[in-house]
Amino acid sequence: MKQDMLVVLDLGSNRNTDVARAIRALGVYSEICNYDVTVEELRNMPNVKGVVANGGPNDVVEGKKIGLSSELKDSGLPIYTFDYAGGGVVNTMPEADEEIQRALKSFVFDTCKARPNWNMENFIADQVELVRRQVGNRKVLLALSGGVDSSVVAALLLKAIGSQLTCVHVNHGLLRKGEPEQVVQVFQDELKANLVYVDAADRFLDKLAGVADPEKKRKIIGAEFIRVFEEEARKLEGIDFLAQGTIYPDIVESGTKTAKMVKSHHNVGGLPEDLKFELVEPLKMLFKDEVRACGLALGLPDSMVYRQPFPGPGLGVRCLGAITRDRLEAVRESDAILRDEFARAGLQGKVWQYFTIIPDFKSVGVRDNARCFDWPVIIRAVNTVDAMRATVEQLEWPLLLKITDRILREVPHVNRVCYDLSPKPTATIEWE
User: Fold this and answer.
1) Which end of the chain is more exposed for a tag (fewer CB within 10 A), N or C?
2) pLDDT digits (tens, 9 = 90+) for 359-394
């Protein structure tokens, strides 16, 4: 990487991503490192100009209080400290992101002499070079869900290695209505990518039968994905690499030494130990908004770049608890109604993410003048920049009533519709 870089040192803060994003917003690349990173490791990282030591409430690890090492203090690297009294410039963490950026600006440019050369054009050039160096003349298999992340990876890898890339789209039975057909149309017909379509719905649903724990579901889905890809790779011959749409929030939320795991992501916490591929993950250091900017810079259409985010485990984490096929269909149909009504209301592209959830319990209701015992549908609609924080979209009441009416009329075995008003934090965007 040719860009200058600052390291955000995690000393137990809950706001490491805020600081990292504030530095990137200044045009300087940044990464979050664990508290025990050594000076030698920092010097081996490209173009490190300084360190922001970021303290906070999680500063006790294995019964010991963590802090800046004497080695780092004596390293000569400029250090700026938030909420920490162990050396450097001591500051209280500002509340607003703009204030963090303002507080760091002088340190980044005047003290560290960093250049504002972090942009998508430079990032793409770096990643194309790195991918070509990693892959050489060998072949890559891309786990293509059709979502934003994997679509941008596909575009970047097509630019880097062209026909050496084969995209595999696995229909695991947990996709949204009409999604497999759309993926085939866009990538095979329009982008002319080498695309293999695998219908593995029964295989995945059989594996998930009776599994209620969300972490186990994610790991089963992640592991089964890899098995499918291994099988497809054997058919193709000569596949040495697996490409994934892993992004920075996936890594951060899957846990670090000081931060507790929020949830494991299927492409981080669910990979099997006997993985037979070397991973290619060119977006793994980008936040969600940066992924979209990368897609636009690569020439992808807005309709693809601003497509609704969709988790790798798909509707499997929106059909809460043990997945049943009838409840899965109810999630799929209610989600299609929600997306249709948002489009009719002009909200497509204006609300970051919206979807439905069906929990694994029922409630009493009335249908056709008789008692019924059916599921509730929960609507979730949120706005965010980087998927680390989210606010709830304040929908117009007539729109909510219209969506509710359609779901109750058109989706079998549903007798209630609820709206989730919880921001992130304390909730997460998904329910599982």
Assistant:
1) N
2) 999 999 999 899 999 999 999 999 998 788 999 999
CATH number of domain containing 191: 3.40.50.620
Cα–Cα dist 95/111, whole Å: 23
Last residue of a domain, one of 60, 77, 111: 111
Residues 291 and 159 in one domain: yes
**Contact between residue 360 and residue 210 where contact means Cβ atoms under 8 Å apart:** no
Mutual angle of helices 214-236 and 201-208, in 10-degree steps = 150
Question: What's the pTM value of the predicted model, to 2 decimals?
Answer: 0.74
Looking up residue 329, the CATH number of its domain turns out to be 3.30.300.10
CA geometry: angle 278, 181, 410, nearest 5 deg: 125
Give dist(CA 228, CA 220) in Å, integer: 12
Same domain, residue pair 276 and 345:
no
Other C-beta atoms closer than 10 Å to the C-beta of 51 total 24
What is the enclosing helix (H) or strand (E) of 10? strand 5-11
Q: Which domain holds residue 73?
A: 5-111
Hey, what are 409's tokens? 């009329």
How far, in Å, CA of 115 to CA of 208, rounded? Answer: 50
The reply to whether 134 and 54 lie within a common domain is no
Is the pLDDT at 42 greater than 80? The verdict is: yes
Given a contact cutoff of 8 angstroms between Cβ atoms, the answer to whether 132 and 161 are in contact is yes
Same domain, 273 and 152: yes
Number of domains, the chain: 3
Q: What is the CATH number of the domain that holds 41?
A: 3.40.50.880
Question: What are the pLDDT digits (tens) for 335-363?
Answer: 999 999 999 999 988 999 999 999 999 99
Enumerate the known binding-site residues for ATP.
Answer: 145-151
Greatest extent of the chain over all pairs of C-alpha atoms, in Å? 78
Known binding-site positions: 145-151
